[in-house]
Amino acid sequence: QVQLVESGGGLVEAGGSLRLACAASGFTSRTYVMGWFRQAPGKEREFVAGINWSGAYTYYADSVKGRFTISRDNAKNTVYLQMNSLKPEDTAVYYCAAMFRSDCSGYGCYATPNRYNSWGQGTQVTVSS
User: Fold this and answer.
1) What is the pLDDT of residue 6?
2) Residues 6+ away with beta carbon under 8 Å from 54
3) DSSP state of 110
4) Residue 29's pLDDT is what?
5) Residue 30 has what pLDDT?
6) Residue spans of the chain under pLDDT 70
7) 95: exposed, middle or buried (C-beta count within 10 Å: 0-12, 13-18, 19+)?
8) Which of 37, 98, 105, 115 is least crowded, fewest Cβ atoms below 10 Å from its Cβ?
9) CA 62 from centroid of its chain's CA atoms
10) Strands (E), the chain
11) Angle 105-93-35 (CA atoms, 0-180°, nearest 5)?
12) What is the C-alpha separation between 122 and 18, in angstroms, rounded?
């Protein structure tokens, strides 16, 4: 049974940093795409960042480019989202997701929520002004 568990959320002042982690278990293959999405109250879930299985390819939403960094440690089955220079508009519930397909390439594929097969329960990030 595939399970994704996020951690690392919390309350931080604007300009601060947080690092989210997503621990994965129950996977039978290591060739999976991982993504981070977020959803603010009253808004649709939006793509934040994605990474391929080797870590060679990463994609970011324009709103976080240059501030957030996605990485993965396959030995630990964990994906990270380092968030720097946080802004109040980054406040949302952050979800990690896994995609079990090898033909996904390009921003359009990584950024589409319904291409992902498994989701975590989410972790709250609140940035105060």
Assistant:
1) 97
2) none
3) H
4) 66
5) 66
6) 28-31
7) buried
8) 105
9) 14
10) 3-7, 10-13, 18-25, 33-39, 46-51, 58-60, 68-73, 78-83, 92-99, 118-119, 123-128
11) 15
12) 15
